[in-house]
Design goal:
The protein has 318 residues and is of the alpha/beta class. It has a domain at 138-312: 3-Layer(aba) Sandwich (Rossmann fold), CATH 3.40.50. Helix content is 26%, strand content 7%. Strands 2-3-1-4-5 form a 5-stranded parallel β-sheet, sandwiched between helices. Helix 1 packs across helix 7 and helix 5 (251-259) packs antiparallel against helix 6 (269-279). The longest helix has 23 residues, at 189-211.
Length: 318
């Protein structure tokens, strides 16, 4: 049985064209009623003539296009609805969802407390041994180049049971790319200024971390013969609660570790020996000193915890 070919889809609605929905369907279809053959594509209807209700307009032959429709002709009204039929209303246009501007309560932004000077952590009761692994601390790890400060600080921060950040002075100092004052090219006012700027930046970062409940460990080569710029500067930048610890292996170990470094982190043997000699001034200063000549990184981190526990119970005078 051959069914009627559906009429072509109407053109999209455009302003100024009176397209009628009556041309969408080819008439009511009753089940069981055979359909006739496809309607003959006759010539285009005369302009102004209304198509028969229920029938699709016949497109004209491609080789004989019909005359253009008369401009201004009124659109043909649709046939009257059947009794009892209620014409559906126009489908309301659903606008695209426009998200309302966020409010401070819905943005998810966390209000951070400002960073202030760090106070000394409270000492636990005498009957309880202090546990530095669960206490929010600010630690300054001091030592010469090749002492293992960065490796120990990273390991210590990675294996704590409370959130802990590692802040390396050399990393922050090397944030300066163009115009970086490399001390290996000669110590001058520019390198001195960049060192001081890096220390102050690290101090600001440490105070912000600590104000938000995150411990931090900083590492720097602080010399005992420059207390105002070195240790005194760190106390000003971070606060009196900063716990300094000196990491000072033997000279042979420092030279060996320095030889394994690369880039501007590697110093000459003469410079390493000079720095190591100046660091020896920490002996007798009252600061805790760890000789990690025979200790690997995990062992040194364990000794660091023991030293910090004693520092919390009896803060060093510095």
């Amino acid at each position: 049985m051959q069914h009627a070919v559906g009429s072509p889809l109407p053109p999209p609605h455009q302003s100024g064209h009176g397209w009628s929905p009556a041309g969408q369907h080819s008439g009511p279809h009753h089940p069981g009623t055979p359909q006739g053959p496809a309607p003959h594509q006759g010539p285009a209807p005369h302009p102004g003539s209304a198509p028969h209700p229920g029938s699709a307009p016949h497109p004209g032959p491609a080789s004989h296009p019909g005359p253009a429709s008369h401009q201004g002709s009124a659109p043909v009204p649709p046939p009257p609805p059947a009794p009892g039929f209620t014409a559906p209303g126009p489908v309301p246009h659903t606008p695209h969802h426009v998200q309302a501007p966020p409010t401070p309560e819905t943005t998810g932004h966390v209000q951070l407390p400002p960073g202030g000077p760090v106070a000394m952590p409270p000492a636990p009761p005498s009957a309880t041994a202090p546990d530095p692994t669960t206490t929010t601390l600010a630690v300054l790890l001091i030592g010469p180049a090749g002492a293992g400060k960065t490796s120990v600080a990273k390991f210590w921060a990675d294996h704590r049971r409370v959130p802990t950040a590692h802040i390396s002075l050399d990393d922050v100092r090397e944030w300066v790319r163009s115009g970086f004052a490399d001390p290996q090219s000669g110590w001058n006012d520019h390198s001195e200024a960049q060192y001081r700027l890096a220390r102050r930046t690290c101090g600001f970062a440490a105070r912000n971390f600590l104000a938000n409940g995150i411990s931090c460990i900083l590492d720097d080569a602080v010399f005992p013969d420059r207390p105002v710029v070195g240790l005194g500067g760190w106390k000003r930048h971070v606060g009196p609660g900063l716990l300094p610890v000196v990491l000072l292996p033997g000279l042979e170990i420092v030279l060996e570790r320095n030889a394994e470094r690369s880039g501007n982190r590697r110093l000459t043997d003469e410079e390493v020996a000079r720095i190591h000699g100046r660091m020896a001034g920490w002996y007798g200063s009252g600061l805790p000193i760890i000789d990690n000549s025979q200790l690997d990184v995990p062992q040194t981190a364990q000794v660091l915890d023991d030293v910090l526990a004693r520092s919390i119970a009896s803060p060093p005078k510095w």
